[in-house]
């Protein structure tokens, strides 16, 4: 885990790498991202009686707002990195981008509509203090059970094949390697007054399996199995509701 996590993403070089390399067309992350988009676009109209207001904590380049385009009344993205928000604008992200001070992100109030809070690709690599910032934000946006839903991505589920890398692989200091368990997430939700109400997996396999000659087999197996085997997926989105 980077001690200076927030600082890392303020660097335009890290932003370019995130947008152009991590999410390059055809990359492992963009394949997972397009599966997430497909699921979200089915889930949101089903879960809400009217298009909700979307609040995206640590929105970065606006990936989630673009997935939800047309399905929400409006998207508000909140992030501490001006460079990330600039990239989001460049990529044509719909809605509003809010540059925030760490720990001071506050959802734009709108009492007239249900709300959807998302926090993707954030919880895994941050410490408990930043996870608490994420949950404080979610609590402010979702004061009660009827206010809407919280969706949090964990892209390093501890009970997945990714764990083998920790057991047998070489972990160099240049690449972050964290794991986050369902129990840790459940405990975090519970401490902030949320119940875990669902879990959706997006890949059973890791980036390494998405290389030739295994690429085709990994993609095919994931398309069929990552949803029914969500609990063991490497990349998971939790659905939580305020108690
Ligand atoms: C890995 S990126 C994820 C971006 C986006 N959610 C996605 O899934 O593509 C993590 C983001 O968290 C933001 N961030 C870091 N510390 C933060 C904090 N304390 N509050 C809000 N955002 C923060 C970074 O600037 C960066 O944009």
SSE layout and pairings?
Elements: H1 5-8, H2 12-22, H3 28-47, E1 53-57, H4 63-67, E2 74-79, H5 82-90, E3 96-99, E4 115-119, H6 128-141, E5 148-154, H7 163-168, H8 182-191, E6 194-203, H9 215-225, E7 235-242
Parallel strand pairs: 1-2, 1-4, 2-3, 4-5
Antiparallel strand pairs: 5-7, 6-7
What would you note in describing this structure?
The chain has 243 residues and is of the alpha/beta class. It has one domain: Rossmann fold, CATH 3.40.50. Helices cover 37% and strands 19% of the residues. It has 9 helices and 7 strands. The chain has helices at residues 5-8, 12-22, 28-47, 63-67, 82-90, 128-141, 163-168, 182-191, 215-225; strands at 53-57, 74-79, 96-99, 115-119, 148-154, 194-203, 235-242. It has a 7-stranded mixed β-sheet with strand order 3-2-1-4-5-7-6, sandwiched between helices. The longest helix is centred in the first third of the chain and has 20 residues, at 28-47. The chain is globular and about 50 Å long. The model has no long low-confidence stretch (mean pLDDT 94). Bound molecules: S-adenosylmethionine (SAM). S-adenosylmethionine (SAM) is lined by residues 5-6, 9, 58-61, 63, 79-81, 84, 102, 105, 120-122, 130, 133.
Low-confidence stretches: none
Structural class: alpha/beta
| Major sheet strand order | 3-2-1-4-5-7-6
The helicity comes to 25-40%
Number of helices: 9
Q: Determine Rg (CA atoms, Å).
A: 17 Å
Strand content: 15-25%
Bound molecules: S-adenosylmethionine
The CATH architecture comes to: 3-Layer(aba) Sandwich
Shape: globular
Task: Please summarize the sheet with the most strands.
Answer: 7 strands, mixed
Tally of strands: 7
> How many domain units?
1
N to C succession of SSEs: HHHEHEHEEHEHHEHE
The H-level CATH homologous superfamily, spelled out, is Vaccinia Virus protein VP39
Separation of the first and last Cα atoms: 31 Å
CATH topology: Rossmann fold
Assigned CATH class? Alpha Beta
Average pLDDT, rounded to a whole number, is: 94
